[in-house]
Amino acid sequence: MHSASAPTTDERFQQVHNYRSEDGLAARQRIFQYKTPDYDLPGVVASNITGRPKRVLDVGCGNGRYTVRLREAFPDAEVVGVDLASGILETVPEPTVVADVADLPFEDGSAEVVLAMHMLYHVPDIPAALDELQRVLAPGGVLFVSTNASDDKAEYVPLWQDAAKAALGAEVRLTLSALLERFSLETAWSMLAERFDRVALHDLPGVIDLPEPGPLVAAFRSEADFIGLPPGDFERLLGEVERRLDDHFARHEVLRITSHGGILECRGAKG
Fold this sequence. Notes:
By secondary structure, this protein is of the alpha/beta class. The chain has one domain: Vaccinia Virus protein VP39 (Rossmann fold), CATH 3.40.50.150. It is built from twelve helices and nine strands. A nine-stranded mixed sheet has the order 1-5-4-3-6-7-9-8-2, sandwiched between helices. Helix 3 runs antiparallel to helix 10, helix 4 runs parallel beside helix 5 and helix 7 crosses helix 12. The radius of gyration is 19 Å and the shape is elongated. The relative contact order is 0.17.
């Protein structure tokens, strides 16, 4: 089972080089190996699924972190990885479907469990995407949505902004800043509470203690296509970031970064 539907969401975020393969996403995920507490995020989802679902849809599944884990936890279920970017699905075992969250090729009420993990902030029309997620969710089913709180990575945004001013004399916004303005944990809670009778927050605060600059430089580099600077400007900016990080680590053993995400567990869909 591997099908496709025409993309309708913002290709700048969904189908740039970051999502033609798992490399960019993996670079951003890598910094979390230094996070404490070390939350088992797929485990949080799996442990809050009741009964024996027949179908689970992992929408915006990326490199399949949740998809694979849920297949292990529910071997009798059809766990489908869904993503708009076909390249990133190459590493995810089938069944997978190339599809837009705004136009899912599944029947009404056909999945007892639906996931939208760290992806809705990319979608141009978030209410329309929520309509579609709610449409495919079976009566009595559960929707899991994750995103970051407004204080997430509060230290690394100023690092980037100050480097941009020094290197280019201009403000260059990180993707993180724009996306959190669109769909932070606080915003998500409000939107989902309008659609579901019960919205439970699994709050997941922590810190990332980076022992050297490499993982953060790689994470910044992975955003090149998102940011859209000319290559020369991007390299000047990244060089300034590296210089500042080298200066920090010459004086400190670690760089501490706030990490604050959350998973919203939604039940009792309103009509």
